[in-house]
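Sample intake sheet
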Amino acid sequence: MTGIEKTDGMKIEDLAGETIFASVQDEKLTEKERELVGILKPGGFVLFSHNLVNMGNARSFCEELTSIVLSGRGRRPFIAVDQEGGQVIRLPRPASHIPSMMAIGATRDPLNAFRVALIVSIELRAIGMNMNFAPVLDINTNPDNPVIGTRSFGENPELVTKFGSKYIEGLKQGKILSVAKHFPGHGDTSIDSHSALPIVEHGLERLESVEMKPFYSAIKHDVDGIMVSHVAVPSVDPSGLPSSLSEKVVSGILRNRAAFQGLIITDSLGMKAVSDEYDIEEASTKAIEAGNDMILGCSSLDKALDVRTAIVRRARKDSSFLRRLKSSVRRILHLKDTKLGNFRKPTTSVIGCQSHYKEIQRIVERSVSTVWNQGALALRANSRICFVIPSDVSAYSQMIKEAISKHFAGIDKRIFEQLDPNFRESALLSRSIDFDAFVAFSIDLHKKQLQAEFLGKLIKNLPNTMVIAINSPYDIRRLPPPRAYIATHSPDPFSIEFAIRSLSAMPNRKKEQAFRFVDRPISFKADSRG
């Protein structure tokens, strides 16, 4: 049966349903939700952490979603998740907690992207998922980017291109569908599209040589899907529309100029870059009209049915829209028929297994970087150490404390958890003579002004202060030079533990090196040298 024959035999309601990624509220379906899934029969589901609280439940939940749609439609739905690594992890323990893409990029070995993607694929399939919204192919050229950061492999187009292509190969080897994001590139923005509409001012020549370059490579490596972001690109579409709703970006650039024949998916239409101007029903029809095949952003099954109704209504009164809808559904069905027809789940014993644990540990040990060392004292058995955990790093304090206890069990130490703006009255300053060294932790200082001020005062007043950045390596740009600076690139347990462990082996000599993943040397703020 040809693609045209497949869609010509479908009701418009079924065509519209295929274009929708639906969301559900909990880790199991209510009776009402089960009924709505049977009515809607969506083309896919996107699952989040609140759907995946328990591994055992997660597998049965995916099986239930699949069986309802399979029995009503005859094809599996896409079951997708954002399992990027680092701060964007959806699967709970015992699933492997993989490092961020920037941590993988910091190893400078593209094969590590392949290895991590293969681990992710095996564990996703064991749960019953078949699609990962990854890799992130944004180039983090703005170190203060509020939404990308360590989700990117780095700031170098060549590096991101190489690592992204290997990541796609790893997903393919593991039989998980890949969706590269966020076209045409969200890396050089200062606004998070979750909260407002970012604008990328670059011309098309620059966009194709930098921002779009990894996506063009991904197309050559047979990426299954590409997610379109909500950034406005005036050089391509002067109307100011978000790329996700722009026919000039979606059809003009991605489908025609880049000759991409795979699945095009919007980023969530519930994000404020879109929702401040359009309700999701109107945004969804605009997205299909622009050339997207599937839409994200239906916060509930009820809302998904409203979106389906809007698409059906438009298709019935607009023949050109109906033709575009059918073209999208043919693409969806082709991908399902060719990639999901023989879907098999490994046993759940592979989830978080020892071989995955060891491989991730090996990769992390190559990603943690001693970026700066001004002759820091190696922390030996007779050292007296004060560990300083700013109170707004509390989400990671337990990981930090466990690693300190493990690797500095026999050392005289004290842990302070505070964020005192009146530093000169702080207990830390009064106790400074009691310690040989201070080890402070930072996280994303471009978002945390108070923490940056506190750590800056700490470094200026206590010269033996070392800093461990537990996510963004760019924290150093907001600090005066510490005695030593270690970048994890990822706030996962392995990265934090290895950074703390490395303190005891730090050489007692001056050392300065560029970040492993960037080509330019470190630069401190001119006004922060103090």
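Comment: The chain has 19 helices and 15 strands. The chain has a mean pLDDT of 90.
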